[in-house]
Structures are given as C-alpha cells and as structure tokens.
Amino acid sequence: MAADRTRRQQYHLVLFLIILIAGALRLSSYDFSLPYIDQPDEPNYYLEALKWRGYYEPGGDIPGYPPGILTINSFVQILLGDDGVLMPVTVQIVRMLSLTINLLTLVIIALIARRLAGPIAGLIAAFSWGIAPLVVSGGVYATADPYTYCFTVVAVWLALIALQDPGRSQFAIWSVAAGLLAVLFKYPALPALLPGFCVTAYFFLTAVPRRWLILLGQFVLVGVIAAFLMFIYQAGRMDIREADTLVTSGWQNVLNPAYILNNLYYVFVPIGGIPTLILIIVGLAIAFYNNRMQQKALAIVLCLLPLVGVPWLAASFSVVSTLGRIKDVLPATALACALLGLAIIEIGRLFRTRRTYATAILVATFAIIIWVPQFLADIGYIQSTQPPDRRAELRQWADQNIPAGTVLVGPENHKTFNPSWSGLVNNRQWFDWIVTDDVLEHTPAQWRDEYGISYLALEILDYNRLTKAPEGQAFLDDLFLLRALTNPPPMRGPEVMFYRLWPPQHITDIAFGEAVHLVGYDVAYPAEDQNPSPGTTMTFTFYWQASSKPAEDYSMFLHLVPAAPTSEAAPTVQHDGPPVRLERPTYTWDNPSEVLISQPITLTLPDDINPGSYQLRIGLYNWETLVRLPITLAGEPVGEAYELVRFDISP
C-alpha cells in the first residue's frame, strides 16, 4: 500500500510539472498582439455577444453560430460591465479561460491514457499535448475550439468510466452530455456523441441493468438540445463559408477518400506526423492482438470513434493543412495523444522482463526525435509573440499626431482603423478607411479629390514594389512621407510607410540647433493672394522633423514685428507654445523619418495695427532657460529668429 501511495504521489507530481510547463508555454504567448486583435474570429464572437445583449445591432454577422463561445463572451462582458468599449480586455479574459480549458484537456487526456495503459501512458499523453506547437498556439484563442477539444475528450473519458466501472454505468449519459456541450461550441463535434452511445450499445449486448434508462436519458438529452438548436436558437440561420460548403458539396466531400485521408493524416501532424502515426498503429495492433475479445479493446474503440469521426466529418467542409483549418482536427489529436501513450507502453511490454528499459528507451528516442524539436519550436513561437503589434502603434500614432481623415490601406491593415473589429477602441479621433489591393489604380490626385483620401498606409512589400518601377516611383514622388513605421524594433504586423497625399504649401529646410528642422508650413487667411489687412486671422500649420532626438523640451515663438528698422522691436502679435502639441514635447521626437504636424495656430492682426511692412519670425527656445536655438539655412547662420512671411499693411 505504501509503495502504491508513493507511485501515485510521483505520478501526480510529474503530472503537475507537465501542467506547469504547458501552462508556462501558453501564458507566455496567450496575450499576443493585444490590444490589437489579430485573430479573425475573436471580434466576431465579441460583437455577436454584444448583439445578444442589445448593444451592437450589426453583431458579428454570424446568426445561428453555436452558442457556447457566445455565451462565454456574454458572461465576461456582463462581469466587466462592457457595453462595447472593452473588447481587448474581454478578449484577454476569454483567452485566459481558453488557456485554462486547454490545460484541463491535458489532464483529461492523461486520465484517458492512464485508464488505457497505466500512469506512464498518461504522462506521455499529457506531455505530447502540452508541448505540441500547433496546440500551444491554437489553444489559447478566445474561440470555441479549445472548449470543443476539452468536451470531446471528456466525453471519451466518461464513456470509459461507464465501461470499466460497473457501478457507474450512468456515466454513459454524462458522456453524451459532454458530447452535446462540444456540439454547442462547434456543430461538427457530433462524433463526440459516439463513445457514450457505443457504451450503451455494449450494455445491451451484455445485459447491463438500467440500460433502457440510460438510453432514454441519452435520447432525452439529445432531443432537448436538438429542439433548442432547431426551433428556439434557429441554428439553421447560420450563414458562413463552412456551412455553405457543407450544403453545396458536403456529401461529395465526406465520401472523397483524398479529403478523408488528408484530414486523418493531419490529426497526427501536431504530435510528430508519420513517425507518431506508425508508432500508434504498431501499438494498437499489439494492443488489439493481446486484448482481443476483451473490454480493453472496446475502450480503445471508444477513443478511435471520435479520432476517425472528427476528421472524417470535417472533410465535408474543410481540407486541413498546417496553414489552415488544423483546428478542425485537433479534438482527434487530443485522443491521438492518449493512444500514443498506450502504444509506447504496449510496445515496451513486448520485452517482458526488460519492458521498463524498453519503454524508457522508446520514450527517450521519441523525445529526441519529436519532443525536443517541438519544444524548441515552442520557444521560437513564444519569442515571435512578444513584440507589440505595429497596427496598434500605427493607430495610436495617427490618433495623437495627425488630423483626422480617410486612410487608404492594404489588406494587412484592413481593420487597423476599424475599432469594432480591431479592438483599438477609446480613440480621440475617427479615421475612415478604404481598402485597396493596388494603390496604382488611381493617381494620388484622384484618390484625394474623387475618393476623399487624405493618407496612405503603404505596406512595405508594396512600397518596395513601387520603388522598382518608374510608374510606382512617380506615384511616391507625389506623396508626402509622414513616418516610416519599420524595423527596428521588430514588431508584429506589416511594416508601413505612412504618407499624406499632398505636401505642405511651402517646402523648407530650416535647421534649429543641430537636430530640429522645419520642413514645411501652410498658411491660410482670407484672400491669400493679397496682403492681410487689420483684423485678418492667419492660420499656420508647421511640419517638423528631428534628425536626432533633441535633448531638451523646446517651445516655439511666432513674432509679428515691423520689418524695419530693427528686429528687436516689440512684437505686434505673438504666439508661444509647443511646436506640435503638449503630448509630443521635442524630447520625444526620436524617429528621424517622422514628420510632426503642428496643431493649427492662429494669429489675428489688431484692428488698430499701424500701416507698414511686417515680418513674421519663428524660433525655438528652451522654455526653462529662455535660451534660443541658433538657426541655419543651407548651412548658413541666420540668427535666432527666422523670417517666415513678409507682407505690407496699407493705410
């Protein structure tokens, strides 16, 4: 008894360590890209949950979608008091729940494998699921899939309990209940119902008491959920690509051997591919041979039913690959992990007295060939998730630094300026956007004048393509670069060259000190082609650039002074303040590619201004010491104030 207790303690300790490793891998990467929501389905579920609660009428445009994940989103929104402004927070919490469910899946896999072949099999199965890179990366999204994986394996585990424990035959009902929960998260999880019904069929073959009551309970559960989905929830309303494929060609696909074999193969890809598949086939052959006509063979069949059924049914609407739809077969992968543990133990048993050593050698070999590369891939994936997302930086920068306008964007930035789908909410300014695959379909003037475009967020691949063609370079020459959002530092999302579609009215290159340059300005006042008159209001916009980061915080002055006889005359009108805005003091100008646009600055001429010639002078100074920066033009010093505009006021 003491030895058994020690072995149980060792088993639980190792399982706990596996959970810690798996949890660390997932916790290190689950919040990638936030507050920008990169995953395409997460905003759908969030918005549809808002629609349920009456806060967002368009919703996620997924009527009839399985209600499980929408319910989770709704509960989290209610707990947060979220009425549509906390999407990143809600998504982060739902991701954390998905992470937790994914770890629970690991525990259930261990329990299944332990029932099949003992504690070592359970640990092997748990570790395989815990470090599989495609599981680590795909199991933390705020989507329905992690719940489907979990409830599918729970259905198998409960069916095994009903099969192997005579006093708990009623667990066959709970197995079907777990399968129905999987279906409530993803309709294609129907094969999760098979283990519970299979056990009930076995009960009828072996005349188990209460078998009719168990079958009745299962049918009642299925009937209630089916009636709810069909008549109350109206699941038939669902209008998504997968549903359309199922309706138009589902039967053809599900009978297509190429699709079925492809999906079955990808069940094993996340845990090692062909070597793992061969190992499992050999182990299952040994297990069936040694346990033919025994209950253990049926236990293996309970695992095989969803393992084969899930990818087979998925073939009706999905052809799986590592780059797409791998999530559709991961419920089967979870069961493949359990069978992997069984296979290694069964092969080890062939060596009888040396089976412990044989099993250890098998595990060590598998670890070297499969687990070590997978763990290194996990580390690489985690590192790739650590940088912030450039799309969040772009949206924040635009909000803080440029006037609102319409932005022309490429496919990679299609939702950067869409707060309902990007998660980038609580902005001060609204930017409209238009998505295009080809910026050359119109000239900059046409984009500006006919489509109302103010800015272009040009992805770096398109930028490089344009610079290599005369037509593309001519297009770029008509634009005004405001900032290059490029590496370094490395960030997620596309590098972007951000332009305005027209240059400043007046292009300049006036240097203030060693770092700050005035590269242009706009001036607007009534009858601009004539001289201002008393009472005229002039509006200026300045364009600044820093060749290196200024060390101090400078203020700008504008002085309207008589043009003669001396520049030391007291200003008739003046303005003092930050060159751009309070949020961007000069010591934050750390990107040499960035052009900083000032807020509009107005100067109103006094009604009693004396006639004569006037000049508007500009300069920068340290607001604490009042020391002005020296000014140079084309390398020549011009003093500490530069004459920007000169005009005459008539009597």
From TrEMBL:
Q: Does the record's keyword annotation contain Repressor?
A: no
Question: What subcellular locations does the record give?
Answer: Cell membrane
Membrane-crossing residues?
12-30, 93-113, 120-140, 193-208, 213-233, 264-290, 297-317, 329-345, 357-376
Q: Would you name any one GO CC term?
A: plasma membrane
| The organism's place on the tree of life at top rank | Bacteria
- Report membrane topology: Multi-pass membrane protein
Kindly list the GO molecular function terms attached to this UniProt entry: pentosyltransferase activity
Q: Where is the Glycosyltransferase RgtA/B/C/D-like domain positioned along the sequence? A: 92-231
Q: Which UniProt keywords apply?
A: Cell membrane, Glycosyltransferase, Membrane, Transferase, Transmembrane, Transmembrane helix
Keyword Transferase assigned to the entry: answer is yes
The record's Pfam families line, in alphabetical order, gives: PMT_2
GO BP, one annotated term: lipopolysaccharide biosynthetic process
This protein is called: Glycosyltransferase family 39 protein
Q: Tell me the organism.
A: Phototrophicus methaneseepsis
